[in-house]
Prior knowledge:
Blueprint: E1 3-5, E2 12-14, E3 17-21, H1 22-29, H2 33-42, H3 44-47, E4 55-62, E5 65-74, H4 76-84, H5 90-110, H6 124-142, H7 146-158, H8 164-167, H9 179-186, H10 190-199, E6 203-206, E7 209-212, E8 220-223, E9 229-232
Antiparallel strand pairs: 1-2, 2-3, 3-5, 4-5, 6-7, 8-9
Helix pairs in contact: 1-2, 5-6, 5-7, 9-10
Amino acid sequence: MKDKILSQTLLKIVDNEPRISHRVIAEQTKNQQKNVVELILKYSDKMELFGAIPFETEVLRAGKGTTKAKTYYLNEPQATLLLTFMRNNEIVINFKVRLVDEFFKMRKELQKPIPTTTEQKFEPQKVLADTKASIELIREVFSLTPFEMIQLDLNAKKRDKISPIEHFNIDLSDVYLLPTELGKLIGKSAIEVNQLLAKSGYQTKVNGTWQLTKEGQEFGIELQGKFTQIKWRVEAVL
């Protein structure tokens, strides 16, 4: 099995394909490794629809001795499928967003032309593999919720990188979020977000209920129901 570790990334090239180990997934999602392995084995028939699952047998320390254990390596669709079988908490959601970003960056890196002074031989199988990889990436990006897309986009911009959202020209201008969701993006509570929006002059309290101001109508919409709710474009707090 030919492979190499990629610097500053969660991924590893295994059999000429970017993959992530079950141990990294366990660490990043705060799950025990044995529980992640149990999920892989339980749903292996589903995951193998996206290809075989390679593994390496490693010698690990166990107390004063050693033991042999398998490390499974999942490709992008297999890792995504595995995450759907986990409890969908904030840690898993954030990791899913980061994982999409990691695979996106890795595919761009692998698709860069290799400088050479000799003519490159046309390899149809490689072109087909790259095309399939791009299609898988597109499917993965478009499977994200609007909130996850915004989170992915902001994470990329913080690192001065082009995000998959920008790369695929996905329009998020009509996406509106609750103050709780906005708070998750900027590290504040819903109460702090509401105070920030009021301080910016976008909303005001009338009879104990937040209402849009004239200035706020550019960024927010009021949803009428049992209780009036205001949803906001992310630009309102950035």
